[in-house]
What does this fold into?
Amino acid sequence: MPTFVVFSKLTDKGAETIFTKPERVKEVNKELEEMGVKVKEQYVMLGEWDFLNIVEAPDEPTLLAALTNLNMRGTIRTATYRIVRVDEYLEAVASKK
It folds into this structure.
């Protein structure tokens, strides 16, 4: 299953939600799962971004729809990158020699 890194930043509205209802983070993870996206790991960050999430989705359209759903709520903004395990990368490179 494709794996992605999703960086997310809370908006003012999102920060207020987390402050008044911290369990909302886990609720959103369950909502993502219902949309076909599994949160594998999640970290809080200090710096430009507030959260780093490693997620799996069956395909890019599923991920795009789920993240669009989250972003349209106005509580977060995201940046997403497709990641590939090193072994998969080396196998792909070796097969094209």
In short: The first strand starts at residue 3 and ends at 10.
